[in-house]
Amino acid sequence: MTTEAAYGRPPPDVAQVGGAALQLSPLVLGSTAIEAIADRSLDRITVLAPPATLERRYVLAHALRVLRPGGQLVAAAPKAKGGARLAGELEALGASPTTESRRHHKICTGRRPESLDALAEAIAAGAPRQEANGLWTQPGVFSWDRLDGGTAVLLGVLPAMAGRGVDLGCGLGLISRAVLSAGEVSEIALIDLDRRVVDLAARNAPDPRARVLWRDLREPQSDLAGLDFAVSNPPFHDGGAEDRALGQAFIRRAAEMLGKGGVLWLVANRHLPYEAELKGAFAKVRLAAETGGFKVYEARR
Ligand SMILES: C[S@@+](CC[C@H](N)C(=O)[O-])C[C@H]1O[C@@H](n2cnc3c(N)ncnc32)[C@H](O)[C@@H]1O
């Protein structure tokens, strides 16, 4: 039996993935972590390579590590989002790739290298790490090496919260850390779709009042209701393309989770059209701050 895995979902006309392939992308709910796959255990792995360099090299190195000798790696990326560098990176990892182009993607096929030295170096460079300030992070996750401008603006105006709440799209957990350090918070659920940040946020908010959940907020969350507060710096990209519907879904989720009188604090890039969604779902909406290209809203149910 062939053992096959996929990291992400490449377009079918770019690379074919077998129906039984084990999914390894941290952005797919229920997937297995690539780090947990044993060395030399797979016959074939297909990777939709991420756009960020350290993250891409980390994923490619793990993909080569888990291949059996003679097993095959197929790695694809849009030309403008890392595809142009894919062959060189795989060559440097020792995979001796062959390359083709299709549908604006570069597609490289390679094999497990004899020496694993270059793989170890790429894996170390892309692994989770603790910064000098104590924060756990990992190359490739949202704003992994700097404080996001929107997060900073929200943290600058956020008052103390109280009661039960939720952090929608928690990332590394910076907003939740601030919420937990002030006010009379009894519990907070940190929710994110990225399994890596779910693990990192759990380390960054080691507080018995914090619960970190790996979930997709495009789906209703019926177990979270009657909350007192919600905080969010919602995503507005999905798979690299701007997706305003994602932020609008976050606003609807917040409204569903809050009890009457509950409050949402939300930051967004100034150009994003969230007012109508907020006014449709909340009784009172106030622009609490506008600075540095960002708007912060306070919306009350
Ligand atoms: C703009 S970042 C904010 C991260 C963090 N709150 C901060 O301010 O640094 C948005 C977060 O939403 C997460 N996200 C994207 N789509 C999601 C979805 N469908 N459900 C849950 N979280 C999602 C991303 O993984 C990312 O961590």
Which features would summarize this protein structure in a list?
8 helices; Rossmann fold; elongated; binds S-adenosylmethionine
Q: Spell the H/E element sequence.
A: EEEHEHEEHEEHEHEHEEEEHEHEE
Shape: elongated
CATH superfamily heading of the largest domain: Vaccinia Virus protein VP39
In DSSP terms (H or I, runs of 4 or more residues), the helix count works out at 8
How large is the radius of gyration? Answer: 21 Å
Question: At the first level of CATH, what is the class of the largest domain?
Answer: Alpha Beta
Report the uncertain regions. none
* The CATH architecture of the largest domain: 3-Layer(aba) Sandwich
Number of domains: 2
The spatial strand order of the largest sheet comes to 11-10-9-12-15-17-16
Structural class: alpha/beta
Tell me the total number of β-strands: 17
The biggest sheet, with number of strands, parallel, antiparallel or mixed sense and barrel status, is: 7 strands, mixed
Would you write up a description of this structure?
- By secondary structure, the protein is an alpha/beta fold.
- The protein has two domains: 4-127, Vaccinia Virus protein VP39 (Rossmann fold), CATH 3.40.50.150; 130-300, Rossmann fold (3-Layer(aba) Sandwich), CATH 3.40.50.
- The protein is 27% helix and 33% strand.
- The protein has helices spanning 53-65, 83-92, 117-126, 149-157, 174-181, 195-204, 244-257, 275-281, and strands at residues 4-7, 22-23, 42-48, 67-78, 98-102, 105-111, 129-130, 136-137, 162-168, 184-192, 210-214, 227-232, 237-238, 241-242, 258-269, 284-291, 294-300.
- It has a seven-stranded mixed sheet with strand order 11-10-9-12-15-17-16, sandwiched between helices.
- The longest helix has 14 residues, at 244-257.
- The chain is elongated, with a radius of gyration of 21 Å.
- It starts with a strand and ends with a strand.
- The mean pLDDT is 96.
- S-adenosylmethionine binds at residues 142-143, 148, 151, 169-172, 174-175, 191-194, 197, 216-218, 233, 235, 246.
- S-adenosylmethionine binds next to helix 5 and strand 10.
